[in-house]
Amino acid sequence: MTQSIQAKALTLGDVQTKFNLQLSEDEQFFREWIDDSPEITDAEKRY
Known about the structure:
Elements: H1 12-19, H2 42-46
């Protein structure tokens, strides 16, 4: 059974420890953030 914890009860340190988060300086880590994205169509903008 999974135990749920309310987010307001957590600190950043708790999250870092629980999920073993580490700083990455790899420029390729989230490539989609720096690649050119396709233009958003007018229909997508209206949506």
